[in-house]
Recover the amino acids of this structure.
C-alpha cells in the first residue's frame, strides 16, 4: 500500500489526473464536496479545474466516471467559468457517456448538457448533440435525440433552435434502428407541441406509414400553448414569475407572457430554399413566345412544377416575371392566362418578400385582366394578386390599384374592391394609415354609389373591412356624406368581416397583428364606447401614444399602438365628432317650428318677425336666455337655427338685433350637438355679414364656433366657397382673415389644400387690394404648416405679386407652427400633440401630390427606347439627351414612364463611362421629377448601387449622388429592405464595399428604425472588417457602431458565431470597442419636424416618407427584440410625444401625488446598482453622447426611487420641463437630504444628460442645483463613491470648456466644492483627462484648475506621480492656442512656487522654445514674491470656499466621526507607485500612544537591528487621532519637537475649544506669530471668519462663547502677526470674496472690518511695513476691480475701504509714498499711481506743508497744546449733534466747516471710541457735503440717510467682528509654558525660516483635516524624524540651503542622509521618554 499513501497526500486536482483509478475516484469525490462547498461562483479555485472537467466525464473507468460526472455536474452548476468548457465537455459526454450501458451515466450526461444550456451555452451544446446524430453508434444517436427532446420540452423553442433539428428529422426517420425511429417520433411530437402545423411541410416526404402514425400522435397533443419550465440564468425574473403561477395554480395571465414563444417558428423558415432558375427548360424563353399555344402551355407547366416548391432561392427573376406578365396581359388563350397567374402566385409564395420588387410590374396587369369573366381565370388571378400582396405593402401598390378604380368595366371595379377588402384584412391600424385610407375610401365611396350591384357590394365589403381594421375614429371622417342606409350597410359588413391574421408571414404576422384584435371589437359599438375607450387609453401614462389605438385597454406591445398613431386615428381624432352627430337629416320647417316651440317661450316665437325692432331685440334676448339654460342633449340645434333664419333672417336691418342673432348662433354651436346640416342653414348668412363693420366680429365668432362643432376643414371649405361666390370684396378679405386665424387656432389637419389654393389664386387676382393682402397673409399662415413646396403653386404669378408672397414667406421663415388650441376638447383627447406629427406629415405629402404632374409616357416612344439601346454610342447618347430634355421640360412627371427604366438599366453597364454618368444624372433627375412615386416605379429594377463598384472615381461619385437623390425621395427603408444590399456587400469589389459602407455609415445614424433585413448585411460587414483593402476595413469599422445602434450588441455578437475562431475574437474585440462609441438613436422629431424650413421640396418628401416608413418597418420584424421595442423605432418616436401628453393634461389624481417625497429611499438600492454595474448587468455610464439605451436604463433605475410625476418631467422631450424638475429638486434639497444621498448616483447621471442639452437655461439651472447639492454634501460630510465620481466628473469637466463665461465660472466653482467630498488627488486624474480635450477653452481651464489643486493641496495631489503629471502639463506649453499655453505656464509656475527648482527635474526634457518661455515666466513671477497668492486670486476666485468648508468640517465634531471616512480614503494622497513598504516593526502605533492615559503598562521588547534604508524616503504626515491635554503633558513632552507635535495635534483637534486655545497660544508669542506667511494668514483669517459666520455655530451649546473667543483670536492675529503679511492677506481675501459669486456679502464685510482695524493700527506700525508689497497688492486689487467695477458693488464699503487705506498711507508717508511703487511692473494697469498723486496733491494743497506724522497722536506740537482744550470742547459739541437724531445734518455741516478751517485738526480720538458704522457714517457725510458744496453730484435724501442710520446704529450682532474688535481686554490664555512648543509649531506649519518669496502652499492648518491624507504610522514616524532633524538644525542656526528647508508642510524633502543617525538617536530617546512616562 506504499504507493496508496503517496497519492493520498496529493492535492485534489492532482488526484483527479492520477493514473490510478482509485486515486481519481477519491479525487472526484473530494472535488464534488469541494464544488458543493465553494459558495462564491467567482472563486479562483474554479479555474484550477478548467482543463480537467473533460477528463472527469471521459474517465476510462466506469466507476470513477460516474463520480466524475457528478462532480462535473456540480462544477457546471456552480462555477462561473464553466461556460468555457462547454464544447469539449459536451463532446465528451456525447462520445464517451451516451454509449455507456449504465442508465445513471446517461442520466448524468443528459443533466450536464441541460445544465450547460441553463448557463446560456445552448448553441454549443446543440451543435455537439447534432454532431452526435451522425455517430455510427445507435445508442449515442438515441441519447442525443432524447437530450434534444428533453431540452426542448424544458427550455422551449425560444432557446433550442428548431431549424437545424427539423433539417435532420427526415434522415432520422429513415434510420434502420427502430429505437432511433421511435425516439425521432417522440422528438417530432415534442416539436409539434411547440410549433404546431409549421412542422408539416418539412416532414411531408417521409414514409406515409410514419406520417400517419405521427398524425395520430399529433392529434393527441393538447392545443394549449406549451410553457417553458426551466429557465436560463438570465431569465430569473421569468422563473420567479413561473413559480408564483405554479403556486397559484397556473394563472392565465402567464399565458400571455409565453404566448410570444409559440408563434415564433414559421414553417417557411424551416424549409430549405430551392434554386429553380437553372432548372428551367433550356428553350423556355423561346417556347413561351411560340405561336402554338400547346408549346406555350408546356413551357408554363414546367414553371408551374418548379414553383410548387414552398421556398425558393433568391435570384434574378426579372425576365421570368416579365414573360409571365406578358402571358397574363396579352395571351389570348384564357387557360394559359390562368396558368401563368398560378405560376406568379407560386413565385410570390416561394420568394415572399424577395418578390416584392416585381410586384409593381405585375399588379396593374393582373388588375386589368380581371375583365375576364371565366371563374377559373378570375380565381387564378385572385390567388396570384393575393399572394403578391403579401410580398409587398399596400402603400407600394396603392397607386396601381387606385388607377383601375375608375375603370369603365364593372368586373374590374368589383374585383379591385374585393382585392382591397382582402388586403385590408391583412393590415393593422399601423399599416393602414390615414394617408392610405383617404384615397381608398374616396374611390370606394364612388363604388358604393355605382349602378352595378356587384360593384356596390364589393365596395361595401371593402369599406366594412377598413372600418373594422382601422376603427371608426379613423374611417368616419371619410364617410361624412354617406347616408344612413349605406352607413348601416357598411357597419353590417364590418361585423361580418373575419380578419385573416396569421396567414401572411406565418408567425411574424400572427404575432404582430394578433395582439390588438381583442381590443378592437368594442370600438365598433358606436360613439359612446369610443369615448370610454379613449379615456381608458389616455389614462395609463407610459403607454406610447395610447389613444391612437382604438382598443378597449392598453395594447400589449408598444409596437402596434405606436405605429397606429402614425397615421390613422391620431390624426383624424381631432376632427371626428362622434358619428351620430355628423349625420342629421334635414327637417321640414313645420317640424322645426314644433321643436322650437317646445323649448322657447311662446312670446319669443311670435316676436321673431315683428315689424318693431325693439320687439325683435327683446325676442332675441329671451331666445339667448333660453339657449343658455338648455342642456346639450335636449337642444334642437337645427330647429333653433332655422327659426333664426326665418324672415327677416339674415336680411335683418337693425344691427343690434343682428349682433344678438349671430351671438346666439355661436352659442348654439358651442352648447348643442351641432351638425353640418344646421351649419348649412346659417353659414351663408354669416359669410354675408363677415365684412360688416358692426356685426363682423360676431359673425367670425359664430363661424369659429361652427368650425369647432363641424371641424375646420369642412367649415372652411364651405365658407371660402360662399365668400368667393359673392361679389363683396370686404366679405372676401374678412373671410380669408378669419381663415388665417382659424388655421392657427385649429391646426392644419385635414384641410383641403387644393381647394384653398384655387380660391387663393382667385383672391390674388382680385382688383381689391385688401383681398390680395388677406390672401397673402393666409398663404403665410399656410406656409407655416406646409413649408417651401407651397411656393410651387404660385410660380406663374406676376413677379410683383410673387415678390410679395416671398416676402410674407420670408417673415414666416424659422417660426414654429403654433399648437392648435381649438377643435380638440370636444371630440378627442387623443388629438393633441400626437396628432400633430402626422398631420403635418400629411400636409407635406398632400402638397407634393397636388403639384401638377405631366404624363410623359407618350414621349417615351419605342423609337426612343431603341435609340438608347443602339449599337452606336453616339446614337445612344442622342437618346439619353432626348430623355434629359423631356424630363427638364416636364419639371414634374407622372410615374408611368413606360419602358424607360429597362432601357436606362442596360445603360448603367455601358462600356462608355460618359454614358454611364449621363444615365446616372438622368436617374437623379427622375427622382426629383417624380417625387416619392419613384418608389413604386423603379427602386429595385435599376442597380445603381452596383455602379458604386466602378473603378472610375467620378462615376462612383455620380452614382453616390444618384443613390442619395433616390433615397431622399423613397426614404432609406426601401433600400435596406430585402436582400439586395447584402447581396451587393457580398461581392468582393473593394470600391463597391467602401462606397456602400461609407454611405450606410452616413445614413444609418439618421434613421430611427430599420428593417430587420439589415441583419443580413452583418456577416458581410464582418468579412469587410478583415478585407485585404485597408480602406474597406476602415469604412467597415466606421459603420460598425451604426449597425450596432440599430441591431443592438447582442444580435451583432450572436452573428459572430459563424466566423472562424480567430476572426471571431478580432471581431468581438471591435464590437466591444464600437459599443463604447455607439451613438444614440436620433431623437424623435420635434413637433414641426415635417416642416423643412428653407430646404427644397425633396427634403420635404424625405421627412414624410421617412416617417411613414418607420411605421411599417417595425411591424414587419419577425420577433421584436424587447430592447429594441423599448428604445428604437416607432416607439422611440412615440416616447417624445407621450411625455408631452402626460404632462399637458395631467389627471387630477396625478396632481395630488405631488405632495409626497420626490426621492424614495430604497434600502441598499445604491449598493445594488453599483453591483449591477460592476457585474456588467447594466451598461456602464460611459459615452460620448448619451444614447437611447442609457436614457432608458436610467429611467428604469429611477422608476423605483423617484416620484412618478417628477420622473415624467425629468425625461420629457421639452427642456422647460427639465427646468421645472430642477426647480422642484432645488426646493426639496434641504428637506430630503437622505433621499438625495440615496439616489445621488442617479441624480448625478441625470445631470450629466443635461450637460448634453443645448439649452443654456437648463444648463445654468443644472449648475445652480449642483452648487447647492455639493454644499449640502460637504455639510453632511458625504464622500462621493468611485462609481458616482466616474459617471459624473468627466462630463462636468466637458462643460469647463463652454464658450460662455458665466458657465465656466460656475463649473469651476463646482469643481472646487467637489474637492470637499471627493479626494483632490482623484479629482486631479479626471481633470488631467480633461486637458486632452479638443476644445482649447477646456484645456486651458483644466490646466488652471490643476494649478489651483497643486497650490491648495501641495504636490501630493499629482497623480499618478508628480513627475508624470508635470510632464503631461508641460506638453501644453507648446499648444497652438495662446490661452492654453498661458494656462500651462501659470500652472507650472504655481508648482514652482510650491516645490522650487525640483520642478525642472520632474518636468524632464522640454524643447528649447518651451523651456525659455517657462524660465521667463518663472523669472517674472520671482520678481514679485506676492504673485503666487495674487494670481491664485485672479484665476481661482472660488478657491476660498475650499478652506471655509474645511473649517466647517473641522468643527463638525470629534475626529472619530471621520475615522471611517478617513479609512475609505486611506492612501488617497500617497503616491501608489513610490510608497515603499516599510517593515512591520517600524509601524509605530501612534494612535495607541497618543490615546493613552497612562494607565497601561508597556513592556518594551529588546531592540533588533534592521535595514534602515527606507527611512530616508520622503514621507507624508498622517492624521494623528486627537484627544484632550494629557495629564502627563509636561514630563512627556519636555522636548521641543514633541511639543510642536502636540500643539499641532491640538490645533487640529476635533474639539473647538482646544483648537482655538492652541491657536491663541500660537499668536501669543510675537516672534512666532510674526513668522506666519501671507498665504497661511489668508487661510487662517478665511477659516476664522467663515467660522464666525457659520449659522450652525450658534446652534452649539456654547456657540456664543465660541464666536467670542474666535473674535478675540481674530484681534490677536491682526495685532500680533507680521503687519505686511496680514495686510497683504486681508487684501487678497477681500479680492477673492468680491470675485467669488458664491461668497456671502457678510464675509466681505468682516474682511473689510479687519482692514479698518489694520488702518487704525497703521500710525504705530507704518515703519515696520513693507510698503512696496502692500502697494503691489493694492495695485493688483485695483487692476481687477477698477473704480467703475467697484462702484457697481452692492455696498460702497469696498471702494471706501480702499480709499481710506490709501488715504491713511498717504497721510503717513506723504509724497514719499510714490517711491514705493518699485514692485509694480506696469503702473498703467491700474489707477493706483494716479489716485496716490491726487491724494498727495490734495493734502499738500490743504495744509500747505506736509503734516507731521505725529499729528496722528495729537500731542507732539506745543502750539497745539494751548488750544487743545478749546478744540476738544468744540468737537465734543459737534459730535453730540451728529449723534442726535434731529441735528445730524447740522452737526455734519459744522464738522465739515471745522475740518476745512483746521485742515490738520485731529478728530481721530472722537471717532476711536465710536462704533465702526458711526465712523464710516461720519466719513460718508463729510464726503457728501464736500461734493455738494463743490456742486459735484446728487445727494441722497437726508431721510434716507438718517433712516439708514437709525436702522444700523444698533450694535451689530455677536457675529460681527466689530462688536469686540475694539475690546482687546478679553480673557487671554497666556501660560508661558506654551512658548517653546509654539516656536516648534510655527516651524511645523511651514512658517519656518523659509524666505518670504518661497511662499509655502496654502495647506493651512484648517484645510488639513478636511483633506484626509491619512498615511501609515510609518509615514508618521518618518515625518517626525525629519522634523526633529530640521528643528534641531534650525536651533543650531545651521544655515541650510533653502531648498532643503523648503518644507512644504507635507512630503518634506530630506537633505543629506548624514544626519540620519542623529534622528534615530532622537527617536530612541523619545521612545524612552514615552516608556518612563508610562511607568
Amino acid at each position: 500500500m506504499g504507493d496508496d499513501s503517496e497519492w493520498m497526500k496529493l492535492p485534489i486536482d492532482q488526484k483527479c489526473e492520477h493514473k490510478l483509478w482509485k486515486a481519481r475516484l477519491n479525487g472526484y469525490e473530494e472535488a464534488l464536496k469541494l464544488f458543493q462547498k465553494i459558495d462564491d461562483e467567482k472563486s479562483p479555485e474554479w479555474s484550477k479545474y478548467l482543463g480537467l472537467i473533460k477528463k472527469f466525464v471521459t474517465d476510462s473507468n466506469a466507476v470513477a466516471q460516474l463520480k466524475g460526472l457528478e462532480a462535473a455536474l456540480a462544477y457546471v452548476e456552480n462555477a462561473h467559468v464553466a461556460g468555457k468548457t462547454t464544447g469539449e465537455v459536451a463532446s465528451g459526454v456525447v462520445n464517451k457517456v451516451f454509449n455507456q450501458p449504465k442508465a445513471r451515466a446517461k442520466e448524468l450526461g443528459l443533466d450536464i448538457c441541460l445544465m450547460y444550456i441553463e448557463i446560456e451555452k445552448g448553441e454549443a451544446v446543440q451543435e455537439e448533440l447534432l454532431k452526435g446524430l451522425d455517430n455510427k453508434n445507435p445508442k449515442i444517436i438515441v441519447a442525443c435525440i432524447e437530450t434534444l427532446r428533453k431540452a426542448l420540452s424544458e427550455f422551449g423553442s425560444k432557446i433550442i433552435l428548431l431549424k437545424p433539428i427539423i433539417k435532420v428529422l427526415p434522415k432520422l426517420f429513415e434510420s434502420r434502428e427502430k429505437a432511433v425511429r421511435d425516439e425521432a417520433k417522440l422528438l417530432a411530437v415534442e416539436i409539434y407541441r411547440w410549433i404546431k402545423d409549421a412542422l408539416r411541410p418539412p416532414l411531408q416526404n417521409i414514409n406515409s406509414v410514419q406520417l400517419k402514425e405521427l398524425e395520430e400522435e399529433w392529434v393527441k397533443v393538447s392545443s394549449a400553448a406549451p410553457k417553458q419550465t426551466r429557465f436560463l440564468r438570465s431569465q430569473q425574473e421569468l422563473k420567479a414569475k413561473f413559480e408564483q403561477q405554479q403556486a397559484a395554480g397556473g394563472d392565465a395571465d402567464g399565458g400571455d407572457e409565453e404566448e410570444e414563444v409559440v408563434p415564433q417558428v414559421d414553417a417557411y423558415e424551416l424549409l430549405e430554399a430551392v434554386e429553380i432558375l437553372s432548372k428551367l427548360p433550356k428553350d423556355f424563353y423561346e417556347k413561351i413566345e411560340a405561336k402554338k399555344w400547346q408549346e406555350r402551355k408546356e413551357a408554363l407547366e414546367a414553371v408551374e412544377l418548379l414553383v410548387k416548391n414552398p421556398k425558393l432561392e433568391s435570384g434574378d427573376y426579372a425576365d421570368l416575371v416579365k414573360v409571365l406578365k406578358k402571358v397574363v396581359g396579352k395571351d389570348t388563350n384564357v387557360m394559359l392566362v390562368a396558368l401563368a397567374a398560378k405560376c406568379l402566385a407560386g413565385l410570390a409564395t416561394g420568394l415572399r418578400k424577395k418578390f416584392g420588387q416585381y410586384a409593381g410590374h405585375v399588379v396593374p396587369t393582373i388588375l386589368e385582366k380581371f375583365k375576364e369573366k371565366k371563374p377559373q381565370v378570375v380565381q387564378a388571378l385572385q390567388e396570384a394578386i393575393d399572394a403578391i400582396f403579401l410580398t409587398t405593402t399596400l402603400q407600394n401598390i396603392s397607386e396601381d390599384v387606385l388607377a383601375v378604380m375608375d375603370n369603365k368595366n364593372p368586373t374590374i371595379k368589383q374585383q379591385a374592391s374585393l382585392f382591397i377588402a382582402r388586403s385590408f384584412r391583412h393590415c393593422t391600424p399601423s399599416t393602414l394609415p390615414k394617408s392610405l385610407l383617404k384615397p381608398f375610401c374616396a374611390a370606394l365611396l364612388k363604388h358604393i354609389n355605382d349602378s352595378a350591384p356587384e360593384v356596390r357590394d364589393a365596395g361595401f365589403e371593402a369599406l366594412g373591412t377598413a372600418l373594422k381594421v382601422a376603427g371608426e375614429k379613423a374611417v368616419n371622417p371619410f364617410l361624412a356624406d354617406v347616408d344612413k342606409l349605406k352607413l348601416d350597410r357598411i357597419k353590417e359588413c364590418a361585423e361580418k368581416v373575419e380578419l385573416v391574421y396569421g396567414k401572411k408571414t406565418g408567425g411574424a404576422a400572427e404575432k404582430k397583428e394578433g395582439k390588438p384584435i381583442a381590443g378592437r371589437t368594442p370600438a365598433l359599438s358606436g360613439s359612446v364606447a369610443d369615448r370610454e375607450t379613449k379615456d381608458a387609453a389616455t389614462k395609463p401614462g407610459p403607454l406610447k401614444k395610447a389613444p391612437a389605438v382604438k382598443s378597449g385597454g392598453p395594447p400589449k406591445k408598444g409596437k402596434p399602438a405606436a405605429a397606429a398613431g402614425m397615421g390613422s386615428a391620431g390624426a383624424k381624432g381631432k376632427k371626428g365628432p362622434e358619428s351620430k352627430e355628423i349625420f342629421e337629416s334635414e327637417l321640414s320647417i313645420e317640424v322645426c317650428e314644433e321643436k322650437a316651440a317646445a323649448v322657447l317661450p311662446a312670446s319669443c316665437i311670435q316676436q321673431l318677425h315683428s315689424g318693431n325692432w325693439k320687439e325683435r331685440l327683446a325676442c332675441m334676448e329671451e331666445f339667448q336666455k333660453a339657449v343658455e339654460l338648455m342642456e346639450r342633449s335636449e337642444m334642437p340645434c337645427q330647429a333653433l337655427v332655422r327659426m333664426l333664419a326665418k324672415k327677416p333672417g339674415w336680411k335683418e336691418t337693425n344691427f343690434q338685433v343682428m349682433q344678438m342673432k349671430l351671438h346666439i348662433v355661436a352659442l348654439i354651436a358651442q352648447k348643442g350637438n351641432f351638425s353640418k346640416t344646421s351649419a348649412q342653414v346659417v353659414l351663408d348668412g354669416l359669410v354675408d355679414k363677415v365684412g360688416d363693420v358692426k356685426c363682423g366680429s360676431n359673425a367670425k365668432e359664430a363661424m369659429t364656433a361652427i368650425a369647432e362643432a363641424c371641424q375646420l376643414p369642412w367649415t372652411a371649405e364651405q365658407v371660402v366657397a360662399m365668400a368667393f361666390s359673392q361679389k363683396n370684396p370686404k366679405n372676401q378679405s374678412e373671410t380669408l382673415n378669419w381663415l388665417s386665424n382659424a388655421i392657427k387656432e385649429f391646426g392644419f389637419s385635414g384641410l383641403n389644400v387644393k381647394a384653398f389654393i384655387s380660391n387663393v389664386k382667385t383672391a390674388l387676382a382680385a382688383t381689391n387690394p385688401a383681398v390680395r393682402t388677406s390672401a397673402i397673409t393666409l398663404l403665410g399662415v399656410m406656409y407655416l404648416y406646409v413649408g417651401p413646396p407651397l411656393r410651387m403653386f404660385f410660380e406663374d404669378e406676376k413677379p410683383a405679386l410673387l415678390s410679395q408672397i416671398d416676402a410674407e414667406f420670408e417673415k414666416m421663415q424659422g417660426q414654429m407652427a403654433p399648437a392648435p388650441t381649438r377643435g380638440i376638447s370636444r371630440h378627442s383627447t387623443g388629438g393633441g400633440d400626437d396628432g400633430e406629427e402626422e398631420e403635418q406629415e400629411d400636409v407635406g405629402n398632400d402638397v407634393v401630390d397636388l403639384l401638377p404632374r405631366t404624363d410623359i409616357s407618350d414621349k417615351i416612344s419605342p423609337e426612343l427606347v431603341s435609340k438608347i439601346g443602339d449599337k452606336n454610342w453616339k446614337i445612344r447618347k442622342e437618346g439619353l439627351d432626348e430623355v434629359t430634355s423631356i424630363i427638364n421640360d416636364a419639371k414634374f412627371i407622372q410615374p408611368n414612364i413606360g419602358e424607360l427604366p429597362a432601357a436606362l438599366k442596360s445603360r448603367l453597364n455601358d462600356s462608355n463611362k460618359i454614358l454611364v454618368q449621363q444615365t446616372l444624372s438622368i436617374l437623379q433627375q427622375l427622382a426629383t421629377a417624380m417625387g416619392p412615386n419613384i418608389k413604386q416605379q423603379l427602386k429595385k429594377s435599376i442597380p445603381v448601387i452596383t455602379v458604386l463598384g466602378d473603378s472610375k472615381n467620378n462615376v462612383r461619385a455620380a452614382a453616390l449622388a444618384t443613390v442619395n437623390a433616390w433615397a431622399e425621395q423613397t426614404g432609406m427603408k426601401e433600400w435596406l429592405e430585402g436582400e439586395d444590399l447584402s447581396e451587393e456587400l457580398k461581392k468582393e469589389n473593394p470600391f463597391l464595399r467602401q462606397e456602400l459602407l461609407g454611405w450606410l455609415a452616413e445614413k444609418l445614424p439618421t434613421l430611427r428604425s430599420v428593417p430587420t433585413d439589415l441583419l443580413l448585411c452583418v456577416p458581410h460587414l464582418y468579412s469587410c472588417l478583415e478585407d485585404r483593402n485597408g480602406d474597406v476595413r476602415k469604412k467597415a469599422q466606421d459603420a460598425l457602431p451604426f449597425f450596432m445602434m440599430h441591431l443592438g450588441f447582442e444580435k451583432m455578437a450572436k452573428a459572430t458565431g459563424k466566423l472562424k475562431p480567430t476572426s471571431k475574437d478580432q471581431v468581438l474585440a471591435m464590437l466591444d470597442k464600437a459599443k463604447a462609441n455607439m451613438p444614440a438613436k436620433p431623437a424623435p422629431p420635434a413637433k414641426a419636424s415635417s416642416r423643412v424650413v428653407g430646404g427644397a421640396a425633396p427634403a420635404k418628401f424625405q421627412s414624410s416618407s421617412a416617417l411613414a416608413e418607420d411605421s411599417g418597418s417595425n411591424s414587419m420584424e419577425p420577433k421584436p427584440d424587447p430592447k429594441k421595442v423599448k428604445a428604437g423605432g416607432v416607439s422611440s418616436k412615440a416616447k417624445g410625444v407621450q411625455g408631452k401628453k402626460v404632462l399637458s393634461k395631467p389627471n387630477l389624481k396625478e396632481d395630488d401625488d405631488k405632495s409626497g417625497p420626490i426621492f424614495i429611499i430604497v434600502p441598499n438600492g445604491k449598493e445594488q446598482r453599483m453591483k449591477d454595474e460592476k457585474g456588467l448587468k447594466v451598461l456602464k455610464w460611459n459615452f460620448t453622447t448619451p444614447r437611447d439605451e442609457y436614457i432608458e436604463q436610467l429611467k428604469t433605475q429611477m422608476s423605483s426611487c423617484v416620484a412618478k410625476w417628477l420622473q415624467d418631467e425629468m425625461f420629457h422631450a421639452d427642456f422647460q420641463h427639465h427646468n421645472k424638475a430642477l426647480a422642484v429638486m432645488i426646493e426639496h434639497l434641504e428637506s430630503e437630504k437622505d433621499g438625495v444621498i440615496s439616489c445621488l448616483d442617479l441624480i448625478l447621471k441625470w445631470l450629466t444628460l443635461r450637460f448634453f442639452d443645448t439649452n443654456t437655461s437648463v444648463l445654468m439651472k443644472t449648475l445652480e442645483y449642483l452648487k447647492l447639492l455639493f454644499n449640502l454634501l460637504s455639510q453632511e460630510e458625504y464622500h462621493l463613491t468611485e462609481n458616482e465620481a466616474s459617471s459624473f466628473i468627466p462630463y462636468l469637466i466637458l462643460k469647463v470648456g463652454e464658450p460662455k463665461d458665466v458657465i465656466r465660472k460656475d463649473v469651476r466653482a463646482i469643481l472646487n466644492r467637489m474637492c470637499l467630498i471627493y479626494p483632490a488627488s482623484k479629482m486631479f486624474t479626471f481633470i488631467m483627462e480633461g486637458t486632452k480635450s479638443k476644445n482649447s477653452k477646456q484645456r486651458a481651464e483644466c490646466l488652471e484648475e490643476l494649478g489651483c489643486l497643486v497650490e491648495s493641496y501641495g504636490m501630493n495631489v499629482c497623480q499618478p506621480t508628480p513627475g508624470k503629471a508635470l510632464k503631461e502639463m508641460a506638453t501644453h506649453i507648446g499648444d497652438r492656442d495662446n490661452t492654453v499655453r498661458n494656462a500651462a505656464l501659470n500652472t507650472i509656475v504655481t508648482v514652482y512656487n510650491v516645490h522650487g527648482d525640483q520642478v525642472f527635474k520632474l518636468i524632464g526634457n522640454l524643447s528649447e522654445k518651451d523651456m525659455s518661455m517657462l524660465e521667463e515666466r518663472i523669472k517674472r513671477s520671482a520678481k514679485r514674491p506676492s504673485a503666487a497668492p495674487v494670481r491664485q486670486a485672479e484665476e481661482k476666485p472660488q478657491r476660498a470656499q475650499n478652506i471655509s468648508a474645511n473649517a466647517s468640517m473641522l468643527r463638525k465634531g470629534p475626529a472619530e466621526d471621520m475615522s471611517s471616512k478617513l479609512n475609505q480614503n486611506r492612501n488617497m494622497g500617497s503616491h501608489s507607485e513610490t510608497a515603499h513598504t516599510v517593515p512591520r516593526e517600524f509601524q509605530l502605533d501612534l494612535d495607541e500612544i497618543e490615546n493613552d492615559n497612562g494607565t497601561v503598562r508597556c513592556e518594551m521588547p529588546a531592540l533588533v537591528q534592521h535595514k534602515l534604508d527606507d527611512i530616508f524616503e520622503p514621507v507624508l504626515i498622517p492624521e494623528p487621532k486627537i484627544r484632550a491635554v494629557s495629564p502627563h503633558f509636561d514630563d512627556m513632552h519636555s522636548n521641543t519637537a514633541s511639543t510642536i507635535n502636540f500643539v499641532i495635534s491640538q490645533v487640529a483637534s476635533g474639539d473647538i475649544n482646544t483648537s482655538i486655545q492652541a491657536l491663541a497660544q500660537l499668536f501669543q508669542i510675537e516672534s512666532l506669530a510674526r513668522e506666519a506667511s501671507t498665504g497661511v494668514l489668508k487661510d487662517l483669517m478665511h477659516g476664522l471668519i467663515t467660522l464666525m459666520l457659520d449659522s450652525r455655530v450658534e446652534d452649539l451649546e456654547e456657540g456664543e462663547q465660541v464666536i467670542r473667543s474666535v473674535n478675540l483670536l481674530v484681534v490677536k492675529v491682526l495685532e500680533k502677526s507680521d503687519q505686511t503679511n496680514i495686510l497683504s492677506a486681508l487684501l487678497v481675501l477681500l479680492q477673492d470674496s468680491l470675485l467669488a459669486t458664491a461668497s456671502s456679502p457678510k464675509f466681505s464685510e468682516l474682511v473689510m472690518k479687519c482692514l479698518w482695524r489694520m488702518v487704525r493700527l497703521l500710525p504705530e506700525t507704518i515703519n515696520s511695513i513693507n510698503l512696496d508689497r502692500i502697494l503691489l497688492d493694492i495695485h493688483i486689487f485695483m487692476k481687477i476691480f477698477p473704480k467703475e467695477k467697484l462702484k457697481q458693488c452692492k455696498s460702497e464699503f469696498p471702494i471706501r475701504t480702499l480709499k481710506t487705506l490709501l488715504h491713511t498711507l498717504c497721510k503717513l508717508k506723504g509724497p514719499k509714498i510714490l517711491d514705493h511703487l518699485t514692485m509694480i511692473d506696469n503702473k498703467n494697469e491700474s489707477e493706483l499711481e494716479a489716485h496716490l498723486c491726487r491724494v498727495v496733491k490734495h493734502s499738500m494743497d490743504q495744509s500747505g506743508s506736509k503734516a507731521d506724522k505725529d499729528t496722528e497722536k495729537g500731542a507732539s506740537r506745543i502750539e497745539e497744546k494751548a488750544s487743545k482744550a478749546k478744540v476738544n470742547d468744540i468737537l465734543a459739541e459737534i459730535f453730540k449733534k451728529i449723534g442726535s437724531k434731529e441735528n445730524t445734518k447740522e452737526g455734519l455741516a459744522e464738522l465739515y466747516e471745522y475740518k476745512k478751517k483746521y485742515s490738520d485738526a485731529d478728530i481721530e480720538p472722537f471717532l476711536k471710541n465710536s462704533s465702526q458704522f458711526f465712523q464710516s457714517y461720519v466719513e460718508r457725510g463729510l464726503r457728501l457735503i464736500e461734493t455738494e458744496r463743490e456742486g459735484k453730484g446728487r445727494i441722497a435724501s437726508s431721510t434716507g440717510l438718517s433712516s439708514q442710520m437709525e436702522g444700523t446704529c444698533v450694535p451689530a450682532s455677536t457675529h460681527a467682528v466689530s462688536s469686540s474688535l475694539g475690546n482687546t481686554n478679553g480673557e487671554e490664555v497666556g501660560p508661558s509654558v506654551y512658548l517653546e512648543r509654539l516656536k516648534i509649531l510655527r516651524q511645523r506649519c511651514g512658517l519656518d525660516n523659509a524666505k518670504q518669496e518661497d511662499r509655502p502652499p496654502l495647506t493651512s492648518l484648517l484645510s488639513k483635516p478636511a483633506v484626509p491624507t491619512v498615511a501609515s504610522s510609518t509615514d508618521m514616524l518618518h515625518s517626525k524624524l525629519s522634523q526633529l532633524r530640521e528643528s534641531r538644525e534650525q536651533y543650531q542656526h545651521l544655515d541650510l540651503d533653502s531648498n532643503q528647508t523648503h518644507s512644504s508642510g507635507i512630503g518634506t524633502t530630506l537633505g543629506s542622509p548624514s544626519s540620519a543617525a542623529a534622528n534615530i538617536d532622537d527617536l530612541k530617546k523619545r521612545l524612552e521618554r514615552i516608556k518612563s512616562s508610562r511607568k
Observations:
- The CA atoms of residues 217 and 1618 lie 105 Å apart.
- The chain is about 65% helix and 0% strand.
- The chain has a mean pLDDT of 74.
